[in-house]
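User: Structure please.
Assistant: Input sequence and predicted structure:
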Amino acid sequence: MICLATKNKSEEENFFVGIESPLELRRQLLEASKKMVDVLKRYEMFREKREMKRLMIEKLKKNMADIAKMNAKLKSLLPKTSIRLGKPMQGQERPSPRVSVEEEKSPATEMERLELELTDIEGKLHKLGR
């Protein structure tokens, strides 16, 4: 039988590579390992929280189903009446809550509020500068 795979002399020789700063390389490898362990730990915490969320959602669904059953049972135990709560008549509109003048002047966005504060501070600085 003929062996087709033959090793070259160069494949049999071992080569060594010098590392300029082995301590620095070791430190970097250890720091990378530390970061990897931190990432894995955070991932495990994430998986645990996701599982807790799933269990809580299942518990919530079960509780909602129980509440629906109890509500149906309560309705069946209450006496039957023909009285219904109706809509208020058209002439009897409920008064809408009034908005005070201060609330109307309040800025709609956070950016507008900050701009008003900035102009107020600039005005105070201008008065101090006189």
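The radius of gyration is 38 Å.
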